[in-house]
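Researcher: Quick sanity check before group meeting.
Model: Go ahead. Protein one:
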Amino acid sequence: MVMLPVDEKEFDVTPFVYEELSLFVHTTHPFAQREKVELRELKNENFILFNQELIYNLIIQECLQAGFRPKIAYEIAEWGFISEMIGENIGISICPKPIAKKMNQDLIKVISIKNPSIPWNLGFISKKRKHASPAVREFIQYISAQLPIKL
């Protein structure tokens, strides 16, 4: 499983999640009254980031392209702990939108990011011209039958 896009000349790709990263803030945060924010508006905020390499690097890269290096207050390995920290108004986070289902929506507001939006597209890949095991083929066939999945 990887974040897309990948080189489709080298890999067979089965996409299965089409989402975007969103801004998560405490309900008292000034951005909580808005439906959308521009990424560059976050340059003075304290970030609480999930420390998984792919999402972490994607957020850093997008912030740099928007003209700033994010001020990272905390790097956390658990979504629940990130939720608790936002719920205590310790900072903001950028997370996949489906994570909102696991957060306290009385304390946390999810806001779309624009200019740019940050895609969070996931898929399964396998090397072209490699034979997958029957179990892998069955799994990919099952996922393909469920497409597109929007969490």
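Researcher: Fine. The other one?
Model: Protein two, sequence then structure:
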Amino acid sequence: MLAAALRAGMTVYDLETLELSYAPPFGSAKDPVNMVGFVAANTLRGDLALWQAADYPEATDGARIIDVRGEDEFEIWHLPGAENVPLKDLRRRQEGWDRATPIRLYCAVGFRSYLAYRSLVQRGFLDVKTLSGGMRTFRAFHDVTPSAIDEPLPVTSYAEHAGPPSAETATALDSTGVFVDLDCTGLACPGPIMKLQERIATLAPGDEILAHVSDAGFRLDAPAWAAKNGHTILVLTPEGPGYVARFRKGHPAGAAKAALSGPAAFTGPAARIKDKKSFVVFSGDLDKVLAAFIMANGALAMGDEVSMFFTFWGLNSLRRQDPPAREKSAVMRMFGAALPSGANDLKLSTLNMLGGGTAMMKKIMKQHNVASLPELIASAQTAGVRLVGCTMTMDLLGIAQEDLIDGVELGGVATFLGDASESNGGFFI
């Protein structure tokens, strides 16, 4: 089509309006030729202002550099002087910004920064530009060499890790090595690890499997599952709402160690019992959640590590009282109205008496200098307790990460079981 357009002397404006047939093997519903026309025409018309990798650092001189990727991506590598304002937080964070200050946006490949660009321009910002091609183009152009600190993951581009293993990786496979691309998207916890376990059982040691998972909790589940089963993680990197991970199957009797560095690191023996306590907080009753945090704080005072996994009604104790506004379905709004909105809204399991018993209990606790539940949660976090929210429960109840208090990690059953396998005490409350 592009060759025909060149021959016919067409412009990019003509590419926008070409009527191209849709047939899945040959042309997608949004045809790439149309997309090329849209991108070029947007730039020529001035609907989109770009800055180029070739123009760095001059393009950012005197400008505020905003990285709209997620926090995990920002920690792996970012431009010097850049501020991390994830796209989901931009509308809230931009309040109070000087609209005359130049802003230079970037993300991984340019899509999220384009959305950020539209949002800021429509809010009256005068000098906004987005990086053409994102960080992947930028790093390729400037030949930025990954380091152990900058980018610990051995695979950096989706095109590489979505396809067959590289030549370097292939040499590490057995002579009969196999590479499997496994789609686990759409599966809620524990679906992804169950499907992984079923598929990897058919492979030989040294074979590799690439898993695409849409569950955000897979960031913690993947290292825990790999370490427990003696497999090696070669890659764990964000992909859409979830992650893509490459595993190499280990020998059944081999040491269970996950070779992954960076934010999701999980190293060391998988099942070494130590002074550690693991909690499953299932209940959403005030007295039971109080008991959980009293024991957790006591264990911390005894010098133990503590991990707390919140699922179903227990997750309500970690909800914010003033979550940011967002669109919800009618069912999710109903759940939100019916369920407690945070630690201060929990009720007693018995003698609640339409709220009177709960109010009386809180008053008695105050008179006896017993810390309130929010205070116990805060002290536990300060002392280093690990709070993990169950992603399956969040999906079922319509709870988003921004609805939870700061410091809560997202995980699934494998995350809890990984912690429990190291613990010398487990509690289900």
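Researcher: One line on it for the slide.
Model: DSSP finds 17 helices and 14 strands in the chain.
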